Amino acid sequence: MITPVPCVPMTTAATTVAPASGLGPRPLEGSPVPKLRSVLVAITLALLAPLFVVTGAAAQDESTPIERIDLPTASSGEQVAGELRQNKVDPFTLVAVTWQGSLRALDAEVRVDGEDGWSDWQQLTLSEEAEGEARGGSEPLWVGEATGFEVRLRGTGAASDVQVSLIRSETRSTDTQQRPQVQRRSAANGAAQPVITTRAQWGADERLITPDCVAPNIASTLKAGVVHHTAGSNNYTAAQAAAQLRGIYAYHVRDRGWCDIGYNFLVDKYGKIYEGRHGGIDKPIIGAHAGGWNTATVGVSIMMNSDTMKPTDVSLEAMVSVFAWKFSLHGIDPLGKTTLNGRTINTIEPHKALTATDCPGVNLRPKLDWIRQRTAQLMGTGEEPDRSPISDRWAAEGGANGPWGAMVGGIKETADGGSWADFANVTAYASPTGEIAVVQGRIRDRWKELGGATSGLGLPRSNETAGPHGSRVTTFEHGRMIWTLPTDAQPIYGWFNSNYDRLSNAVGVPTSGEYLRQGRIVQDFTRGRFYLTNGSLHAVYGTIWDRYNAMGADESALGLPVSSEEAGPAGSRQTRFANGWMVWRIDTGAQPVLGWFGANYEGLSTALGVPTSGEYLRQGRIVQDFENGRIYLNGNLAAVYGRIWDQYAAMGADQSWLGLPLGSEEAGPNGSRQVRFEHGTLRWTLSGGVTILVS
Predict the structure, then answer these.
(1) 669: domain range?
(2) What is the phi-psi region of residue 101: left when phi exceeds 0, alpha when psi lies from -120 to 50, beta otherwise?
(3) Which of 61-65, 407-411, 604-608 has the lowest mean pLDDT?
(4) 3-state DSSP call for residue 281?
(5) Residues 243-288: pLDDT tens digits?
(6) What contacts 552, CB < 8 A, 6 or more positions away?
(7) Which residues form the Peptidoglycan recognition protein family domain (predicted)?
(8) Residue 133: its pLDDT value, please?
């Protein structure tokens, strides 16, 4: 059972909240705010009672801030227990638990039915209580897209009206396209203002703010900074960060009854900074992030659970850049002490040092000394980084105030004698001779998702350039990343990368990364697919790919490719497969040759020529047409071609009096070639041409 309370925004006397009956103004008709639904859990209070099943119901009107359904509760002691099983509901992206009353400790777990089925149980981080708070609750957990949930809880204290809150906050196209546009302003003798995504840019609906909170509470000065984590999910994309933030904001105001989001600033794991509580980013706004410690402090929270994962370098650097700028405005020493609430504290403290909480988590608290030192460095009161081609280029770009943003983690040497460094908005590599390669934008985001410098791509080796088919390309140590708007940024590694240049015009741009299919490593492109088999590349593309894909690709009767496209008979192009061939020529299109026909085609291709059809039924036989003949299958293979086929076709082929062939062309007497039919034989000699023999 959790006794220390985790990190969540907290209200104080300095921040007025809406009454529980109101929960803020009703949004206007058609308001595009995150949708919330509350599922009420009937909780029985029973001394040392185990978990048991209770009932719930989903709200129907999603246009209102929240709907509550009162269910009866009972109390006979201090132990609270409850469980709500696997409800199927409309899609949601965040889940949380709220309650009325006081809980001294509570364990709450949730699992959801998402795109990959039911997840494992995940702990919900519970909020500390605060005087005047409308409802107690957990931190909302980002779950992506889910349509079912199961919650179980157990705690001590007095609670009623326990609810499961389901929040749907959808990703918008502007979440990836919008670039922060806040003007950077340098503080006197200190760090510059970092790039900050405003509330308007991340989509905060200002109509959610309660009337008594419209005029922000502003302290007379700033004295300290507080480090937080949101205790939410670590599993979100750069595009989902703003959607997650909109969901947190809606939950704080609508479900918890607060007047605004609690933190002053939030930072996603990709290093993007977001304006939190409204009122002015350059002012000492009194937030609601640390109970009893909100006045004269700035609360910065990384959107993650730092108990289960280490914070990213870029998120730490972004947090530091906020502290450095705010401290520069107010003349605060990040390595010093200050007095608040009658206590002497560090000017940068973790939430845990101020209140009974586990915030931030075990992977973020050890970074506090680094955060203080790095803040001092950015403010110009600490050591400056060593000079290098990267630092010189960074300075030329405007330093932390330029488009590269703040440096993250310093400059690192590479095995080839070069160096590299992360910045808030780019990653730069310097070759041993000083040439700089920069990766940025969506290509960098995708590279970071794959592991950045430790990914299979390695470090960048070129700036972004124009690529095939209107793409943008950045090359890396071990591959390249290719971006187009419809396909997003996709990596190409190893053998596939080595062969891409010569095949790019034919296969198009990648639509996926590498993955396993039918026991092979494969990669998809707009006009084909690469297969890797025992170290050999087999590429299927163009019209041959179109026909192969329409048949079911490697799940079709042809099976897996055993060659790339190659020259075929009579000016054709062909690809060999495990169970046949696909042969293309401009006048015949792409035609498959399967099974028995495929097994014998290589030896007959010169005589038969290019296939002009696929298999079909004729006269009770499976047949296939070629430009110089036809193959019949009826227990055995019968191939008719060349001059004998010309005569046979002129007579009406299998509809002639000769009937169907009984076998393929064979040796006849005196050096002749012949084919036997049901009612006769066609025999060819070089001197006499084709002779018709009646049986």
Answers:
(1) 641-695
(2) left
(3) 61-65
(4) coil
(5) 889 988 888 888 778 888 989 999 999 889 999 999 999 999 998 8
(6) none
(7) 194-345
(8) 56
Contacts of 421 (CB under 8 A, 6+ apart): 390, 391, 394, 407, 408, 409, 410, 411, 412, 427, 428
| Residues 271 and 365 grouped into a single domain | yes
The neighbouring-strand residues paired with 413 are 419
Q: Are residues 139 and 269 in the same domain?
A: no
User: Are 591 and 611 within 8 A, CB to CB?
Assistant: yes
- pTM exceeds 0.70: no
**Final residue before a domain boundary, out of 152, 172, 192:** 172
Give me Rg for the CA atoms of the chain: 35
For residue 524, being part of any structural domain is answered with: no
CA–CA separation, 523 vs 520, rounded Å? Answer: 10
CB contact set of 586 (below 8 Å; sequence gap of 6+): none
Give the tens place of pLDDT for each residue, 443-453.
Answer: 999 999 999 99
Q: How many domains does the chain have?
A: 5
Query: What are the residues facing 123 on neighbouring strands?
Result: 109
Tokens (6 digits) for 527: 């006009």
Closest CA to 514 of 498, 534, 535, 493: 493
Residue pair 540/531 in contact (Cβ under 8 Å)? The answer is yes
Element housing 654 (H / E):
none
Alpha helices in 1-82 (DSSP H): none
On whether both 485 and 592 belong to a single domain, the answer is: no
Buried b (16+ CB within 10 A) or exposed e, 119-151: beebbbbbbbebeebbbbbbbbbbbbebebbbb
Cα–Cα distance measured from residue 69 to residue 64, given in angstroms and rounded to the nearest whole number: 14
